[in-house]
Every structure is written in structure tokens, then in C-alpha cells.
């Protein structure tokens, strides 16, 4: 009996065991393979479906750049959440596994950061200032996946508007904490409590999902998983470096790339200088105002004090 026959018999035996374990007939599945169409790249990737997801609201060609760029962002956000989910739902991740997942996540955000030139230098200002009016009141603020990344990265207190952090702790109901998240300031008048249409629609669509996520990741977010590691592992230079890189990339580098791209079009255009959703985009986006920091314990007092300054 040659090796080919031996391998063939082993595969058949493994298939028998696999299908028997789920109470299925092996011959039925094998016959299905006989008539199955061989997979192709375009069917596997769903190329046709993917390339038909771009729908312009205007006839301006650079709107297509804007749409595709943001769709690419959302795909990268999904990749980031895919890695975070694996890390945070691993009961006792080893340091090497933890570090590798963080490196993957950071690479995705590095891609997002360096990609802003595509939007920043890839559209005519005149075209953008025309088609952006058809986007009102939609806004990149309404990216739900980005909020999920935040919830799963850090303790909730670090996402609370710094003006209210002293009044919120782990015993605070999630629904109350939700009303004081830092990004609420972009769509709420804190004197009247009135919310903008931008945030009302955002919450109508995602509020319940956000609350579930806040609760799910309360004790298993990236920071909590880090604190559950042995004390010696928490001092691992490569892991600490990966944690700091992720924190800085998400909350400073990526944010500033987005801010600078927005400035080019909003401030140099002929419009009102307002974001499409009507938010105070400069204060909402600039890291020195909101001071979003995922892992404050990994930064020195001086670094925390100067967070987002001089950028």
C-alpha cells in the first residue's frame, strides 16, 4: 500500500468520525461534494456584492472616494473588533498571545492613521464642499464600531466626560454612565440637556447594543485582561510597549490625522465651518480637550499632564 492510499484512507476515516459525531451520513456529504461547484476568488470574497455597496448621492466623482474610504475604515474596525473579541474572551491569555493580539490591533490602527492622505489629499475641496451638504446630518461621529472598540479597550470611567468622572463609579447604572460619555458633549447642550438629531438617531439605532457591550466588557476589556496577568507579566517590556503604542495610536495619532484632514476641507472650504452633524468637531476630536486615555496607569504624570498638547 503506497502513501497516497494510506493518506486517502486516513482522510476517509477522519471524515467518518467527524460526521458520526454530529449524527450525519458521510456518503451524503461526499455526494454533495461531487456536485458542488469549485470555489472561486470572486465567490469567496464576494467581490461583486462588495463593489456594489457604493451609492453616491451626487454626480461629483470625488464623493466615491469619500464613500469607499469610510467603508474601508469600517472594515478595519471590524478586523480590530475581531482581534479584541479573541483577546478579551480568552480566560487566561499568555503574555505572548496578549502582545501579538495588541500588535495586530495596532497595525490596523496604523493603517487607518497613515491612510488619511487618501482622503486629505485625494479629493478636490470644491467638490467636497458641494457633496458634503447632501450628507447632513450624517456624520462619522455615528460609527458604532468605533464606540465598541472604545468600550472593549478600557474601563468605562476613562470614556466618561472628565467633568463628570468624580460622580461615576463601578456601581453607577450603565444607563446613567451612558449619558455622560465623552462623546455626548458633541451632540448635547449641557445647559438645556437637549440632544441634537445627530445623537438622537445614533442612540435610537445603537443605544441598546452599546449598553449590552458596556456591561459585557466591564470586567474583560483589554485593560482588565492586562491587570489579570501575573504581576511579572505586567512588567514585560514588549507588552507594555504594545499597550502604550495602541493607546497613543488610537487616542492621539489617529485622532489627529482625522482632525487635520477635516480641517483642510471644513476650514478651507466656502461653507460654514461646521461639521455635517453640527457637532463642535474641534473640541470633540482634539485629544487635549477630551483627554481620552485607555491605560492611564501606563503613562507618567508628566505624560498625562501634557496629553494631546503641542499637536
Structure description:
- There is one protein chain.
- The chain has helices spanning 3-21, 26-35, 41-45, 47-50, 62-88, 95-114, 116-120, 125-131, 144-153, 174-178, 197-216, 222-227, 231-234, 237-268, 281-285, 287-290, 301-305.
- It is globular, with a radius of gyration of 24 Å.
- It is an all-alpha fold.
- Helix 5 runs antiparallel to helix 6 (95-114) and helix 5 (62-88) runs parallel beside helix 9.
Given the structure, what is the number of helices? 17
Oligomeric state as shown: single chain
Mean of all residue-level pLDDT scores: 90
Major β-sheet, in short?
A: none
Kindly estimate the percentage of residues that lie in beta strands according to DSSP.
under 5%
- Strand runs, count: 0
Level of helix content? Answer: 55-70%
* Morphology call: globular
Q: H/E series, N to C? A: HHHHHHHHHHHHHHHHH
Straight-line N-to-C gap: 71 Å
Structural class: mainly alpha
- Cα gyration radius (Å): 24 Å
Task: Please describe the structure with a list of short key phrases separated by commas or semicolons.
single chain; 311 residues; mainly alpha; 17 helices
Amino acid at each position: 500500500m503506497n502513501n497516497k492510499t494510506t493518506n486517502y484512507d486516513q482522510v476517509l476515516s477522519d471524515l467518518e468520525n467527524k460526521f458520526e459525531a454530529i449524527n450525519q451520513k458521510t456518503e451524503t456529504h461526499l455526494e454533495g461534494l461531487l456536485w458542488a461547484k469549485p470555489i472561486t476568488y470572486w465567490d469567496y470574497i464576494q467581490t461583486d456584492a462588495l463593489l456594489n455597496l457604493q451609492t453616491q448621492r451626487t454626480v461629483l466623482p470625488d464623493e466615491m472616494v469619500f464613500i469607499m474610504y469610510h467603508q474601508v475604515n469600517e472594515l478595519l474596525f471590524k478586523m480590530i473588533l475581531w482581534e479584541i473579541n479573541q483577546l478579551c474572551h480568552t480566560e487566561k491569555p499568555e503574555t505572548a498571545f496578549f502582545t501579538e493580539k495588541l500588535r495586530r490591533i495596532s497595525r490596523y490602527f496604523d493603517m487607518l492613521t497613515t491612510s488619511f492622505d487618501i482622503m486629505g489629499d485625494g479629493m478636490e475641496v470644491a467638490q467636497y464642499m458641494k457633496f458634503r451638504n447632501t450628507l447632513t446630518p450624517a456624520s462619522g461621529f455615528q460609527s458604532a464600531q468605533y464606540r465598541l472598540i472604545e468600550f472593549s479597550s478600557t474601563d468605562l470611567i476613562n470614556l466618561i466626560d472628565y467633568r463628570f468622572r468624580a460622580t461615576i463609579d463601578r456601581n453607577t447604572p450603565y444607563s446613567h454612565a451612558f449619558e455622560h460619555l465623552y462623546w455626548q458633549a458633541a451632540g448635547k447642550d449641557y445647559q438645556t440637556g437637549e440632544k441634537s438629531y445627530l445623537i438622537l438617531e445614533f442612540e435610537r439605532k445603537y443605544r441598546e447594543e452599546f449598553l449590552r457591550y458596556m456591561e459585557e466588557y466591564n470586567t474583560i476589556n483589554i485593560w482588565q485582561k492586562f491587570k489579570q496577568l501575573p504581576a511579572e507579566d505586567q512588567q514585560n517590556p514588549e507588552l507594555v510597549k504594545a499597550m502604550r503604542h495602541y493607546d497613543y495610536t488610537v487616542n492621539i495619532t489617529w485622532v489627529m490625522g482625522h482632525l487635520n484632514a477635516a480641517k483642510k476641507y471644513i476650514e478651507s472650504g466656502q461653507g460654514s465651518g461646521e461639521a455635517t452633524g453640527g457637532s463642535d468637531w474641534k473640541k470633540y476630536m482634539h485629544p487635549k480637550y477630551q483627554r481620552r486615555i485607555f491605560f492611564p496607569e501606563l503613562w507618567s504624570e508628566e505624560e498625562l499632564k501634557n496629553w494631546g498638547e503641542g499637536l
